[in-house]
Amino acid sequence: MSDEPLLIPTGPRFGDLPLLHNPLSGSGDVSDELTRNHLILLAADNDAKDLAETVPATGARDRKASRRALPLRRFLNQVRYNLAEAAQTARMFEPCDAAFTDHTPCEDPARAKLFPKTAMMHHERHCPPVREVMQCLIPPPVGYKTPLPWPQSRVEAWYVNVPHKHLTTAKADQHWIQYEEETEKFLFPGGGTMFHDGADAYIEELGKILPLTDGSIRTALDTGCGVGSFGAYMLNRGILTMSLAPRDGHEAQVQFALERGLPAMIGVLATKRLPYPPRSFDLAHCSRCLIPWAREDGRLLAEIDRVLRPGGFWVLTGPPIYWKHYASGWNRPEADLAAEQAEIERTAESLCWRKYAEKGMFAVWQKPLDGECQKGKAAEGNSIPPMCPAAEDPDLSWYTPMPACLTPVPAVTDENGVPGGRPVNWPARLTAVPPRIALNLVPAATSSGQEANGEEMVLSGGGGVGADALASADGFRADTAEWQRRVRWYKEKLLPGLAQGRYRNIMDMNARDGGFAAALAEADDPVWVMNVVPVERGAAIGADGEPGAAADAVSPSTVVFSAADTLGVIYERGLLGSYQDWCEAFSTYPRTYDLVHASNLFSKWADRPCPVEHVLLEIDRVLRPEGAVLIHDELPVLQQLLRLAPGLRWDARIESSGGDDSAEGEAVLVCAKKYWTAG
């Protein structure tokens, strides 16, 4: 344990906040394994105050007059209690029924039946209201095994972890996935509907058209991803792909991708914008994804344009491309296929895209690097699709209706005239100052600290921020260095498995500038991180005032971020992420992440419309058995979270954060999810 000084806050405690104090008494035994060698900190306000007043200050930085410095080791030694004592007051959450093993609350097939199938609306997010959120632990399937390590997981996975064989027969001729009875494993040969010789060979051919290995293309979006094989082999070229597919008849396709150790989300191009900021991706890809690109005045293709960077590419294979060769196999009249391709060509042209290449099965379009074509469209005033009005903020991407209009590129350009700026090539992109910061386009918020004014950032349609609240290049560099230090501390003192390849799929629940993920990437660790920028908006609040109750019926223009909207910065660093309201479930299957990290998330929970237990249950849902949780926050917050850990079947302890912030009353809660299964 470190001797880093720790200041003990003596003011209002997290436990005094609504919905968290006085947790329900639970029942159930706490196993010897749970209690053995795990001591926790349960200091009441008076305990901390008395100790702070009796121990001299150490000279550490004092941000509040009520705080007193105290060596962390001495403090812990005086107020430690056995975990079993906490269990006497903690609520013990029971397992859900085994039928909910693969439960996805916001993409529940049963709930989807309540919504119209028009424009794939039924496959969008439809979350239950707070009163209907399940208060139980999602059980892993009987016999669940620790997922195979990367890169072995790219080509095989345990059948028992995702026991769904539908795709092995439905896509048998396309070699998406195979079941090997002798080893009880799924095998992923890299096949796909258009991957006749495997995904790697397919990408090799694409590389003859596009510069896939020079670092100019780093982030990609694969719509209709199947089991993620395109993204799996784009990694060989240093390209990180967000694989996206709905929960539909192609049973568990996103679940398979995540089991393989690949970035993926449940999602669909339907009536709402994708949960990504504008100018996120260098490349978007559709391989026979069966999306009607030319319909509805090009609305779906306009959404691809919104998330593509200036100069970015859209790649299309499958119907109707190369129809003269494939028409007979697709069982469609040649005239229909020719007409469909002509419509796509016209739609792409109306978006100002140019046809970059058409070679064999590949058709590639490129978004222009400048805004000259858009200026011409705006002058015409009658183009289809029209230019989006100024009030249509392209940054609003959480339950925001998808408009049938073309998103204007930013008026601000870099020295090369690229609207919004162009990131440098990978890997320099990871630590270079992102264009959004260099061009003063984002508020000040760092992944290791607080936002500029210490309050939530509220952005409305077309919203910007004052110059005194803008992020700076120096602040970005300082934050990058601080996260490099923190990650070293995590690896050396708190979670050695992070340095040993134990964790592959990682989620950062409050990513800010993406410093945590960047530090892992710079160390060349075999991991990827889903960087989440928390958001809360009225569109997720139903008419009865509960989150998720009737999100489709309400669409206000105000978005509230827990810090600042920095997801665009994260993408400009060559990383991936999503917006997310943590009063709702994330768009993923259970047991899809090895490690969940949260920094300064829970200290802001006082005004949220859902209890913190809901968030912890969601962490448990997405976390794999024997996975880890790291929560960096204020000490009183961690004490209260620690009280809840036994009820989740988590081992837990509080450790020093190893830096100056531990002198400011911050520490790290380290948790490990116990292994257990249904039945």
Kindly list the characteristics that best describe this protein.
679 residues; 9-stranded mixed sheet; 19 helices; 18% strand; alpha/beta; Rossmann fold
Gross morphology is globular
Number of strands: 23
Mean pLDDT: 82
Main beta sheet:
9 strands, mixed
Secondary structure: helix percent: 10-25%
Low-confidence stretches: 1-71, 74-82, 450-468, 539-557
Structural class: alpha/beta
- CATH class placement of the domain at 156-189 and 191-380: Alpha Beta
Give the DSSP E fraction (strand runs of 2 or more residues): 15-25%
Query: Oligomeric status of the shown chains?
Result: single chain
Please report the number of helical segments. Answer: 19
Output the CATH homologous superfamily of the domain at 156-189 and 191-380.
Answer: Vaccinia Virus protein VP39
Radius of gyration: 25 Å
- The CATH topology of the domain at 156-189 and 191-380 is given as Rossmann fold
Distance between the termini: 39 Å
Summarize the SSE layout with pairings:
Elements lengths: L4 E4 L23 H4 L3 E3 L3 H10 L13 E4 H8 E3 H5 L21 H4 L43 E3 L7 H5 L7 E3 L4 E3 L11 H8 L12 E5 L5 H6 L5 E6 L7 H7 L4 E3 L14 E7 L11 H9 E10 L5 H8 L3 H17 L3 E6 L2 E5 L5 H9 L54 H4 L18 E3 L13 H22 L10 E4 L6 H8 L5 E10 L21 E3 L5 H6 L3 E5 L12 E7 L12 H11 E12 H10 L5 E7 L9 E8 L6
Parallel strand pairs: 8-9, 8-11, 9-10, 11-12, 16-17, 16-20, 17-19, 20-21
Antiparallel strand pairs: 1-3, 2-4, 5-7, 6-7, 12-14, 13-14, 15-18, 17-18, 21-23, 22-23
Helix pairs in contact: 15-16
Structural notes for this entry:
The chain has 19 helices and 23 strands. The N terminus is likely disordered. It has 679 residues and is α/β, with parallel strands linked by helices. The strands form 5 sheets. Strands 15, 16, 17, 18, 19, 20, 21, 22 and 23 form a 9-stranded mixed beta sheet that branches. The chain has a 7-stranded mixed beta sheet with strand order 10-9-8-11-12-14-13, sandwiched between helices. Helix content is 24%, strand content 18%. The relative contact order is 0.14. It has a domain of 224 residues: Rossmann fold (3-Layer(aba) Sandwich).
